[in-house]
């Protein structure tokens, strides 16, 4: 069908509906005057011939099942929460202001927020034109399970998703099918009000003939409403089909927006699910959104903090030394009693020793304690110009180590370094720093050349200000020679103060990193491991 043919069909449909409404209004007027229609064949058109059957239908009319085909989501509490968040987004406020002319887009967005935020979304039977196409479209999208997991019980990720969705979908709402649906919905609304007025008149009418006449009129009006609702249902199906691709694309953008918000809150903010300070977190989100480096850091740091939290949880899931599986070996202390029983008879003793030497005795597998770092943590972060590209990972990794240190009531220091004159130290102790302090440390970058001696001396200096048995991690991408005298001095100080030094080499060049050997106990090279693998290895030893 061409666009011209569609438009012609639309005009004819609306004209028919309008004429039908006029006709019904005229009938209602005649009925209100108490002048029954005397046209031939009326008896065939009226469904009820007697007051008994008419009253039975009228009384059962109010106990019919609720039609949930236009269902929306939400409750008073969730709607109020959403309303309180709207002023925090001028962009969404503008969309909603325009949405009044776009057939209920504002209500559809409110319903979407409830769908994402509520653990068990509650359905209501007052959905607008776009609510069902939008919510059903999102639910059917492949990204929905992930989006729901990100947003459930988290107000700011849910709100971020809605804001992004609104910006993506607003422009496609002005189409012919939506206009048709809006016209039909308007007529249904008018007929519904007329039906309510008729019902009230019926309740107060005592004359049987007049009451029968009014009930027949109400029946016809209800039939009209039912038919139009079916047309509206068909229109919604058309709208859903036409908007499917747009809703899918909008859902993907909404997922990205919610992911970024959740990452920032995991990395730097409060626990949104526990009801964190919304204003504080909103200010944090605004600050991070304006800084590309902080955005990159938040994604990686959020991931590492999740890994750390999971490792902490799992480390307490089982008691150390607990038996949890059966394996094979020759550890007598862990052998099953049935295996040891083989030593009780000469004919089975030989079998025991055979399995012993083959390491094939059945034995318990026990959960063993892992070796974890227990000292303060000092990170030396190379901020020379050549590290600018990988700087977000360096800071995310450093802040993950800070999380580990402070969680264990240890001190943490981040030493920024480049050339010999460019050294800056940020010290963090539990309860003695702010989010602004963390963001400032994360966003700091020197540029310039590289010098190792200055940050290493800074690490030694921290030992005189309360750092004990520190684990030092130096992250660098380049070569920088240290003097033999300095290397000797640092080695002595390291042994005296029980320092351990791990080098993270951000270069795959085999010739690079030799200058780390005089003072590092272990070197992790980016060429041998990915950045995430390096982070997980170091984190795993310290959690």
Layout of SSEs?
Layout: H1 3-32, H2 42-45, H3 51-60, E1 72-73, H4 76-85, H5 90-99, H6 105-117, E2 123-124, H7 131-140, H8 144-151, H9 155-169, H10 176-204, H11 208-268, H12 278-289, H13 292-315, E3 323-329, H14 337-340, H15 346-357, E4 361-366, E5 377-382, H16 391-407, E6 412-417, E7 423-428, H17 435-443, H18 453-462, E8 471-476, H19 484-496, E9 500-505, E10 522-525, H20 531-542
Parallel strand pairs: 5-6, 5-8, 8-9, 9-10
Antiparallel strand pairs: 1-2, 3-4, 6-7
Helix pairs in contact: 1-10, 1-11, 3-11, 4-6, 6-7, 6-9, 7-11, 8-11, 9-11, 10-11, 11-12, 11-13, 13-16, 13-20, 16-17, 16-20, 18-19
Describe this structure in words.
The chain has 543 residues and is an alpha/beta fold. It folds into four domains: 3-31 and 48-57 and 179-235, no CATH class; 72-175 and 241-260; 323-366, no CATH class; 377-542, 3-Layer(aba) Sandwich (Rossmann fold), CATH 3.40.50. It is 58% helix and 9% strand. The strands form three sheets. The protein has a six-stranded mixed β-sheet, sandwiched between helices. Strand 6 (412-417) and strand 7 form a beta hairpin. The chain is elongated. The model is unreliable at 19-44, 63-69, 316-320 and 369-373 (pLDDT under 50).
